[in-house]
Design goal:
CATH architecture of the largest domain: 3-Layer(aba) Sandwich
Number of helices: 18
Radius of gyration: 23 Å
Strand content: 15-25%
CATH class of the largest domain: Alpha Beta
Largest sheet: 12 strands, mixed
Shape: globular
Number of strands: 23
CATH topology of the largest domain: Rossmann fold
Structural class: alpha/beta
Distance between the termini: 18 Å
Length: 548
């Protein structure tokens, strides 16, 4: 690895601008991170088609394209999310890319990094403990002296691990001294509203204000109780002081990488922090950033939520696809998708075509990056490139896992040229003034291809309450399976004319959006039958192996 001071110098950071945080990692000092210098870089958003359960290498491609651009003489950097321990030990494995296109120090970033996710977990659970303590002592909250009703608490606890046994729990058992018994549960830290707040806050003042707006639940009379009513935001912000500072690391080829924040794309807004992205845009010439899972999830939220908040818009969009995912969406089981299958590949192209159409809904035209895997055949790769050429879609191969930046030079040239020539104007899926139910319908119809959306009685009631509380004109952060364009993970390919179901709507008042939960989506994942943790080990000399 290069010295982190040298990597930081590529973005114009001097020795006083960084805070070393162990080998190969540093945080950016607050006076630099929060300074509002002009944005100068071209922004390139990397998204993907609907993935297989193992993912399609979107992070690997983002890193590889950054490296390819730098080989072309472009001052490029990437802005990425931090991995969650849940997927690292679960099904997907590490979240730092792979092969010759990954973040370094990879094992450290995957496991604890700078402790940002632990700080989010601690801050979130501090608020949960304060809320239960308020109920236990029945102390008046806020100027109005409201008393939180334990039966109407909506704020759940979190942990950064996949654990299905904690989805629904009962707290406070054991008698009077142990608390007030009530039902509750845990979400994964990546779905925490505190995580969303961290990634959308502009500075410490904004962070505290957003934390104070977190909705905890309601009184017996139905009046809202917020975190500020319990005077919680100061201590919560103190826990997040260092976590709000962006982290700088490097790629395999020594390119600068700002790695900060880790919300999931299927149950949160799926983008790295606003502070890190804007900082990269002030310091580099071209910034490659990713948005979680397929374009229907992370990228839609990047454009409709993050871009509104940050005052930015991408100059180019990249859609990552693999032959494996295309055949998976053509009806082949994931375990067999590596084998040649021309018919399944042709059928699976419909999924890619829908995502291309969705990109156009925002007034943008994508470049498709066909992420090469070792089992891919030249004939099938050429088939996809020819189909896209016939449709007038620019595309190219990205063999960045095997060759690093050298495996995507031609593709990077196309992307850089597209970004240089662009003069983009924001075009959103919905207006903030639209009624919340209409915003949800617009996303479902335009981006997913749904015919309509059905709202349960509970969801309708929650939407009405959100409007009464003044949250009718905030963005929408859909929670939906990432394996399908629909809300049913078994409906692969390009489902048409289906009806989605919104079963619940959560108010993320601090983050500033509503979260509709669709279908069977869960905010606490479970471990698979054979967790990836079986592959991870520590050798006698202290080397961590098997994380990728």
């Amino acid at each position: 690895m290069r010295a982190i001071s040298d990597v930081a110098a590529d973005l114009g950071f001097g020795p006083d601008d960084i805070q070393p945080w162990g080998g190969g990692v540093a945080k950016i000092a607050p006076e630099v991170a929060f300074r509002e210098d002009p944005l100068k870089a071209r922004l390139i958003l990397v998204s993907a088609i609907s993935p297989t359960p193992a993912g399609e290498g979107k992070t690997t491609c983002t890193i590889g394209l950054t490296q390819a651009a730098r080989r072309l003489g472009v001052g490029a950097a990437c802005a990425l999310r931090e991995p969650s321990l849940g997927p690292v030990f679960g099904q997907k494995g590490g979240g730092t890319g792979g092969g010759q296109s990954k973040l370094e120090p990879s094992a450290r970033i995957n496991l604890h990094f700078t402790g940002d996710l632990h700080a989010v977990t601690a801050s979130h659970n501090l608020l949960a403990a304060l809320a239960d303590n308020h109920v236990y002592f029945r102390t008046p909250a806020g100027e109005a002296g409201r008393e939180l009703d334990h039966r109407q608490m909506t704020f759940r606890r979190v942990m950064d691990m996949n654990d299905r046994f904690l989805r629904h729990t009962v707290f406070g058992l054991g008698g009077k001294a142990m608390g007030v018994p009530r039902e509750g549960g845990f979400d994964i830290t990546a779905a925490s509203e505190v995580m969303a707040i961290l990634c959308l806050s502009k500075d410490y003042t904004d962070l505290k204000q957003r934390l104070g707006r977190i909705l905890l639940g309601f009184t017996r009379e139905g009046e809202p109780v917020y975190a500020r009513d319990l005077q919680a935001e100061g201590a919560m912000a103190a826990l997040l002081r260092d976590a709000l500072l962006p982290n700088i690391a490097q790629t395999t080829e020594g390119a600068p990488a700002l790695v900060h924040g880790g919300p999931f794309g299927n149950i949160a807004h799926g983008c790295n922090s606003l502070v890190a992205t804007r900082l990269a845009l002030r310091r580099a010439e071209f910034v490659f950033t990713e948005a979680g899972f397929g374009f229907d999830l992370g990228a839609e939220k990047f454009l409709d939520i993050k871009c509104r908040a940050a005052g930015i818009w991408p100059h180019a969009v990249v859609l990552v696809a693999t032959l494996r995912a295309l055949k998976f969406h053509g009806g082949v089981p994931a375990a067999e998708a590596a084998k040649e299958n021309a018919k399944a590949l042709a059928r699976g192209m419909e999924n890619l075509e829908k995502h291309i159409d969705s990109v156009s809904q925002f007034g943008l035209a994508p470049v498709v990056a066909l992420n090469v895997r070792k089992e891919d055949t030249p004939g099938e790769l050429q088939y996809v490139l020819d189909r896209l050429k016939q449709d007038g879609v620019e595309a190219g191969l990205a063999d960045v896992y095997g060759q690093g930046g050298g495996g995507a030079l031609e593709l990077a040239e196309k992307i850089v040229a597209r970004a240089k020539a662009a003069d983009p104007k924001p075009r959103y899926t919905y207006e903030l003034s639209d009624p919340p139910a209409e915003k949800i319908r617009k996303i479902a119809r335009a981006i997913y291809g749904a015919a309509d959306v059905d709202f349960t009685v509970t969801a309708k009631s929650q939407l009405d309450r959100a409007v009464r509380l003044g949250f009718g004109e905030v963005p929408i952060c859909m929670a939906k399976t990432h394996l399908s364009l629909s809300d049913d993970e078994k409906r692969l390919g390009r489902p048409r004319d289906f009806e989605m179901t919104v079963r619940e709507v959560r108010i993320a008042a601090g983050a500033g959006f509503l979260v509709p939960l669709t279908g069977e989506i869960l905010t606490m994942p479970g471990l698979p039958k054979r967790p990836h943790s079986h592959d991870i080990d520590l050798t006698a000399d202290g080397t961590i192996v098997g994380v990728e």
